[in-house]
């Protein structure tokens, strides 16, 4: 799958930006990011340097082709494109940031990874060019844009989209007497009992590396805790995690794990669990939209599955106090170096990369969803992926993966706690006490 589990990534980011890394929103370091000149260049000449983490041969050619196409359209411009893998990128960007030698454009994961650059004044404020009221911004999914918002300003250019959905086997649901997707979290738990009676494992769940549980908790936190409270708690300098909605979210996750999944999930990989869904033994599987292709004939799924699956967003609990329209997921994106002498040219290149033609090509060539509205068509993708894009565009905001939106130590506390909830060795209250204690240490170090 495309999204790398980012607990280790976040740990690498802790040392990334010692300056301003723990600053609160609105810190003066972030305001220095507004210094870049982003006015459209009258003459397009010079060199643009770019670093991505898309060295994988499945992805790299797309970015190479975009760079060549931009050079062809602008003969006076040279695009210096460097592409490295996930771990080399983490190491490289840490060194470049520390030495203040960032390229003109550089990749960033959404969440606190990006926010560290913003707080350190190393990301240009792009509000004037890609804010939601700008011509460019209006071509983008609002939820994708909002993911790179910090203190009311916009710092990132989303390049792809990924979101979490519950895939379900329509034939299995029919056999269990279920007419369609559950309307509430409580209905989902009830449906699990009916699916068990029909001899299905209700939900295929493999939590060997911890992050699959984190994805459930990400969504349930968004449902049970008010957005402003989440924002405060996910910010390292102000996080407390005392809202009772956090315990509710963990309680709901534990109910789902014990009611709907098989025992021993902590020893089962996500991919192994997914295979039980693809082979028709499980009725549901919580997966990312970038994984949808494995459920198609082209992706190798048997016809019995490829012709009989749909999906729904994990439903909200009744009376939840949070945002029922938030959707777990996030785009990847690019940031612009505010000290770049070619910042305006860098913005022009990113506009080119995210125009309708290149966005459609990304969907066709790589199979990712693009944040550019209208980029997924009948000719370049399949129905479920287009439907996923509609749901993403209809979301109020992304509930960014818990293991990237929070401080790395908080994420690790959640990670170990979630494993304890799955095997029954910990209670929701015990997990939250550990998270709260970790958050307190981080606040004290920030102060």
TrEMBL record:
It comes from the Bacteria. Keywords: Signal, Transport. Residues 1-23 form the signal peptide. InterPro entries: Bact_solute-bd_prot1, SBP. Belongs to the bacterial solute-binding protein 1 family. This is Extracellular solute-binding protein family 1. It comes from Nostocoides japonicum T1-X7. The lineage of its organism: Bacteria, Bacillati, Actinomycetota, Actinomycetes, Micrococcales.
């Amino acid at each position: 799958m495309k999204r790398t589990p980012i607990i280790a990534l976040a740990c690498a980011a802790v040392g990334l930006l010692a300056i301003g890394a723990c600053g609160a929103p609105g810190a003066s370091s972030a305001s220095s990011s507004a210094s870049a000149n982003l006015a459209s260049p009258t003459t397009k000449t010079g060199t643009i340097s770019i670093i991505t983490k898309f060295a994988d041969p499945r992805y790299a050619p797309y970015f190479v082709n975009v760079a060549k196409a931009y050079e062809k359209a602008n003969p006076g411009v040279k695009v210096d494109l460097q592409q490295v893998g996930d771990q080399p990128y983490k190491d490289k960007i840490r060194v470049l940031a520390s030495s203040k030698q960032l390229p003109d454009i550089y990749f960033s994961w959404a969440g606190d990874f990006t926010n560290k650059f913003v707080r350190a004044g190393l990301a240009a404020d792009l509000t004037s060019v890609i804010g939601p009221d700008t011509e460019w911004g209006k071509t983008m999914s609002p939820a994708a844009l909002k993911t790179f918002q910090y203190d009311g300003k916009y710092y990132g250019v989303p390049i792809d989209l990924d979101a979490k959905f519950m895939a379900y086997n329509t034939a299995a649901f029919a056999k269990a007497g279920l007419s369609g997707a559950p309307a509430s979290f409580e209905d989902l738990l009830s449906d699990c009992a009916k699916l068990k009676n029909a001899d299905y494992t209700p939900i295929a769940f493999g939590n060997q590396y911890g992050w699959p549980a984190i994805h459930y908790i990400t969504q349930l936190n968004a449902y049970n805790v008010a957005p402003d409270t989440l924002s405060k708690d996910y910010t390292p300098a102000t996080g407390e995690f005392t809202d009772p909605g956090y315990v509710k979210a963990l309680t709901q996750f534990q109910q789902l794990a014990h009611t709907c999944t098989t025992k021993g999930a902590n020893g089962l990989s996500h991919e192994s669990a997914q295979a039980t869904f693809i082979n028709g033994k499980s009725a549901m599987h919580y997966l990312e939209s970038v994984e949808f292709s494995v459920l198609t004939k082209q992706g190798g799924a048997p016809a019995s599955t490829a012709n009989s699956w749909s999906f729904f967003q994990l439903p909200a609990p009744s009376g939840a106090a949070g945002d029922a329209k938030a959707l777990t997921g996030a785009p990847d994106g690019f940031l612009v170096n505010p000290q770049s002498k070619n910042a305006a040219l860098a913005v022009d290149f990113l506009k080119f990369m995210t125009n309708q033609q290149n966005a459609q090509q990304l969907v066709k060539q790589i199979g990712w969803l693009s944040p550019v509205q209208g980029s997924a068509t009948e000719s370049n993708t399949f129905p479920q992926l287009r439907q996923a894009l509609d749901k993403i565009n209809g979301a109020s905001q992304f509930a960014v993966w818990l293991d990237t939106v929070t401080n790395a130590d908080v994420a690790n506390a959640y990670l170990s706690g979630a494993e304890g909830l799955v095997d029954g060795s910990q209670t929701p209250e015990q997990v939250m006490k550990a998270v709260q204690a970790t958050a307190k240490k981080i606040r004290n170090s920030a102060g």
